[in-house]
Amino acid sequence: MGDIEKYGSIKKYDHVTIKPNDCLTIIYTSGSSGFPKGAIISEETYRATFPNWFTTCLVEQIIFSYRPLAWAADRFIVTGTFLAGGRTGFSTGDVSRLMEELALVRPTQFSAPPSIWNKIYTEFKTALSLINAHHSSAEELRLLKQFSKLIPNRCKILTVGSAKVSPNVLNFMKRCFSGCRINESYGITECGSVAYNNILEDTIKYRLESVPEMGYTIDDKPFPRGEILTKTTKMFSGYINNSEETRVAITDDGFFRTGDIVELRIDSSGRHELHVIDRKKSFFKLSQGQFVSPEYLQNIYIRSSFVEQIYIHGDLLSDCVVAVIVPNRVYVQAFVIEHNLINFDINNPDPQLYNAILEDLRSIAKNESLRMHEIPSRLIIDFEPFTPENGLLTSSFKPCRHKLAAHYADRLKSINTIDQRLKTIIEIATEQSIPNNDNEHFLFANGNNSLTAIRLSRMIENNLGIPIPVNVLFEHTMTLQRLINLIKNPSQISSMTNSLVPQLLNDSQLDINITVGKPKNIGQSPSMIFITGTTGFVGAFLLAELLTIYPSNCKFICLVRCKSLVNPLDRIRENMFFYQIWKEDYQERIIPLQGDLAKIHFGLSNEIYELLANQIDIIFHCGAIVNFVFPYTKLYGPNVCGTREIIRLATHTSTCIPVQYISTVSVLSSEFNQELSIDKVPPDGLVSGYAQSKWVAEKLITKANQLGLPVVIYRLGSICADTETGACNRKDIHTLFLAAIIKMGCYRETEVNTHFNCLPVNFTAKSIVYLSSIQSHVYGNIYHVLNPDSQLPFKDIINGICHCGIELNKVSDKEWGIKLKTITDQNGPFEFVEEFLSENTFNKGCIFSAKHFKSAVSSLNFPSLDKDYVCKWLNFILHHIVR
């Protein structure tokens, strides 16, 4: 620095006179989507960037510059800090020492692109995952505190800029660096700052233009979408030596085409919010015509503990995306040790690691309701990170997409044989990885959920032209090779159906092999309650009601099926948090227990099982796989065997445990509607595998009751949103139906005079807990938990949607079907229920009697399904379901 000052004092420069429109400097774009372009910045534009020249800041400003000064971000912050009398520390340029140098400089504010925050977030996820499988909240807080030390105490402002950041990463930053203000900045080299924390700058002029070929229009519901064009006081004059690019970028009326696809919203105070979807140039088109936003997907998949860096690729020859994964070495090393992968070679990763990563990505995709083509069909695993040195990141730490595509070109080439296409279809639809050369892989051996069979059947028909019935796919001997043979010889399909009634009758007579002792005397209040199904919709509200009703010394053992590395409490918390019923003090009373209903003793050790049997005072069995597409054979394990295991647990000791059993009105065929014993209801009229499995399960629980086990049966009807918050089941057919209306902006004219009979979920839970407590010594009752006298008119739903500011059109059934096809073709959440949504979803009345139930809960006030209720329900769907 002394040499620089000395040289400056000796070398004298003549004063240069410059006009406002003259070029003062050149600032380059990052080059993430192509060759960097030089933006000409005039004196007037440069001066507008710093309106308060030489205004001394009252607070000390120290910044850390680590990106090239040819780019806008560091050029402007260095200049602004100098003009405010602040100080700048410069990086040595060694990326590996970035955090070390940050600690040395100790800036008062720090700005970084998502790639750096992603790196910190990935390291946190890895550390958290490796603590142990059942890490506590205290451990997580300790780890957050440890990671917070990465940012020096003097730093009070953190900014994410230059690209879109994942909501998960942003949430992590706010939790970890709670001593800092976290900001999101959206600016463009060519026109300066556009939005700050999603709020558009007051001085900016802008407009949206539809990009219909990519599915984004200013008429989109519920919010307009398209490319944003801007005009600011900080506009560039053009690209140096590139008049053609300048002509394309600037409109005749002086607006700059940003190339960014955005969604425009309005916040509660009436300000315009801008949400970036992706760069227009980053989108790519797949063979079936869908456009894909890679940055959007990368921000979702980065949450995988396996993933350090990710590049999503696709082209016109592919029908699904491919993911290039740079794995997290620490997490992979732990995986290698845990699974005893001897002689692990990073240049040729073990298939077990490949399958584990692919399965994790597909699990994340499922939770995010991603469309089928947005889920990687295959992976490229490379332990060499993307860096500015190897050219796979720009100097501003953005992924350099064109160089990534060129670097992995040979490995990204599509494999398009029929067998490979079928294998890819099956892997995507079933969310299972099929090892190479494993044609004897059983399609549904590991279990699936959420109408997977419909998806697989449709995908096979759409891609290969052969319709495969759902029940054929669920043949217990169905392998990849057998399905390949059926595709080649479709005439064999017609002979593969048979009746299940004999099997249902036989299974209902299973020997439950129990001896029933005297019922436990729980006194005034139980001290230990065993509950299943808490990661579901009704189960979550049932747990919340029990936690509210019973005193703080009452504990709840919650059986949760999850992977070994997943904390079961996290699943309960996340589920209840989504439904807006989670309270932090709940975790002190919840005892999460990892187990599986379908396994003997739930897969628990003998020691734990004995403790359960001796300590539990009452059982609430709400757990089941609720799926109206799976055949009986798929649901037999969790629904039938699970109920049998509940009976065995309740009768394991010399004193039996009372059971509150959650069933469904689906066990009743059309000619039965009373609250009568299942022994009087034959299974002949039951069509769905779910109804069949619950019929057999209820037969078993009724048999146990007849042998002396205290049991109360609650048959649930249609369960709808919470009366307090409007929280509803995201996978329920009525939820998806209303979401489809909102998405398409229309409804069927034949639906206008229909009604919907439902019972709010919180009142359902309240009723069950109320009946279980006021009649604690009365068993054998059967209740139909519904309100046949309360109907929600479809007209009220339509009026409510319009009240939310969404315009709706009335259309014919034919037009509805056509419009529905346009959104289900996109393989989103509506793809799973197209068959159901094609029919009238609302009905004209309730066919079931609930006389006994209504009499028993007569002291409770049935909730009113009024306009306020409808508004809450629709708002929840609008903000949490519709994407």
UniProtKB/TrEMBL annotation:
Say yes or no: keyword Transport present: no
A Gene Ontology molecular function term for this protein is: long-chain fatty acid-CoA ligase activity
Q: Which GO terms describe its cellular component?
A: endoplasmic reticulum; membrane
Q: Which domain of life is it from?
A: Eukaryota
Q: Which UniProt keywords apply?
A: Fatty acid metabolism, Ligase, Lipid metabolism, Phosphopantetheine, Phosphoprotein
Which EC number(s) does the record attach to this protein?
6.2.1.3
Q: Does the keyword Phosphoprotein apply?
A: yes
Q: Which InterPro entries match?
A: ACP-like_sf, AMP-binding_CS, AMP-dep_synth/lig_dom, ANL_N_sf, FAR_NAD-bd, NAD(P)-bd_dom_sf, PP-bd_ACP, Thioester_reductase-like_dom
* A Pfam family of this chain: AMP-binding
User: Residue ranges of the Carrier domain?
Assistant: 416-491
UniProt-listed NCBIfam families: Thioester-redct
Name recorded for this polypeptide:
long-chain-fatty-acid--CoA ligase
